[in-house]
Amino acid sequence: MSTLPPNQRTPEALERAIYNMSKLDRAAFRGGFILENIMGSISTGHLELTSKNPNVNPFVTFNYFKLP
What we know:
18% helix; FAD
């Protein structure tokens, strides 16, 4: 979905994305997803790994509305 411009995200495209995600192995969702919420954001954030353990969530700072 993130590759589609917002004006092309039709109900049919959303339905197709949901269907395609339902076909993925459940293991694909154990790590989680970070999705882009704002197209073309000029702010930057960072991701920090807090452990070598793959089951520990990373520390994520998005900074959506912070000026660069």
